[in-house]
Write a structure and sequence with these properties.
Pyruvate-ferredoxin Oxidoreductase, domain 3, globular, 35% helix, 605 residues, alpha/beta, 4 domains, eight-stranded mixed beta sheet
Length: 605
Amino acid sequence: MLSTAESTRASGSSEANEPSEPSRPSRARKSAQDTRVASSVSIALTGSGGSGVMTAGQMLLDAAARGGFQGMMTRSLGPQIRGGEAEAFLRLSASEVTCPGDGVDILIAFDWTSTERFAGEISLKPSSLVLADPELGPAPAMITGSGARRIDLPLKALLAGIPDGRPNMVGLGILAGLIGLPEDSVLAVLNRMLKRKGAEALAASTAGIQAGYAAAADMPADFRLTAAKQAASRWNISGNEAIGVGALRGGVRFVAAYPITPATEILEWLAPNLEHLGGELVQAEDELASINMAVGGSFGGLATLTATSGPGLALMIETLGLSVASETPLVVVNVQRGGPSTGIPTKSEQSDLNIAVYGLHGDAPHIVTATNSVADCVFTAQWSVYLAEALQSPAIVLTDQLLGQTRAIIEAPEGASFVARREVAEGDLENYLRYAVTESGVSPMAIPGTPGGEYVADGLEHTPRGRPSSQAEDHLTQLDKRNRKLELFDYGKHWADIEGDGEIAVVTWGSCTGPAREARVRAEAAGLKVKLISLRLLAPMQTARFEKALKGVKKVLVVEQSHSQQFYHYLRAHYDLPKDVKVLSRPGPLPIRPAHIYERLADWS
């Protein structure tokens, strides 16, 4: 569980299992000796769409960044286009945060109906603090049954005398006060975000935040964060934005895409930033048009990208096959969500693994990579562009809603040397063979308009010159060529992140990496040696490297977020795993927490 100090109760509070009489704030101010210090704090804000929980959460994260803290904010929404339920979940700390915590330390609920819809996602404990307006009525069973401490939050009284005051600003002030953020940090963020809305709006929100700080002074002091160190090199960025940064660093200059949750923010970020670099983004009429445009842009000589989610990827499969057959580089970012069909658009899952690695018809070798943190979205996107261009192949980048729509405070990523470099046919192109059989499997690609570089590029099997052919020899030759270039390429150390050592290994990928990392650290602190293997390159599989990584390992715990254990079965299909293997899998939208993994490791040892 999170490393928070032993909880204290406000003076005059009632027991948490007595819902009819929730606890009330003490009138006595906290003294210095009453203050506890937390290594990290997890906070949830719940309300209906439009209640401002996302705004308050975003401002709290921004203020924490200004105060030198690190952290992340995930968002969870209902399926409605407008309205519905909304939850902002933050975890803040003086040190690096790579995943949500095990549970919620502070919950501020602006209505019970919306809060109940997140019952499975909000894990409360007796030391948790729940804040809600008594006018909301009786608390739901998820609150009363948890044993969490409750404090009435009389929002109407706190907002009295504040014209156009907003409850979410009061909540922001309370949360900032409870964790010990300086008030000037919060007000600086407020000024930046609301100055264009006018003096009246700014004054009302300022007064609401100050009222919240005053109310927090009378509440338990269990959640004050350890002092943070200032760092000028930190970024405040979402996973989707980080994908955009990596794509531009890698050399992408043309993007065509159709908006889809939860990938749209990639396009929104890229649109203006591409223009600054002389590139262009086109919003196509649908997913089929977008990937075809991207293939066309790549055929013309540019590094290209499209971004989508599961339903869009399903529509793009035929053109991905065209990219394989014509050896035209392409990057497709798939921000996974719950499926099948339209499934759960606003929640995370890792259930597109099978379609990513197996979904193309015929023998169609291609690249599949996966990001394992918000920060890693920068590197993996850049590396994937490099791989696609170097190998003249489509590269599918798998991320998910949890990583894509999470905003995190991270250390500024170091610049990587991976920049798109396509082998281009130049010079005397007499008797040019576009699909010449080479030792590496990669053959020079002529840019349209190059004298002598004309060739046919379509989905039909072909001769080395590019002419359509149905001959068995031509088919086998080109199959071998397309497979060989991926198999012989040296992917280096970036195929996986490997940490620690021991006879037990946690093997995982994607957004499950963060909680697995934290669980491994906890296990080591308890005297249990654990190795972590997080795959970044899912296809082509690196058999020799994986076998080397498993040397000395006697037990393997596979961790994934899918119902049918897609990752486990993929591993079994390609690797000889140790005899003793267990699987921790669950479908979305419930995330896998560090405690889930640590408990499996501890029980197994």
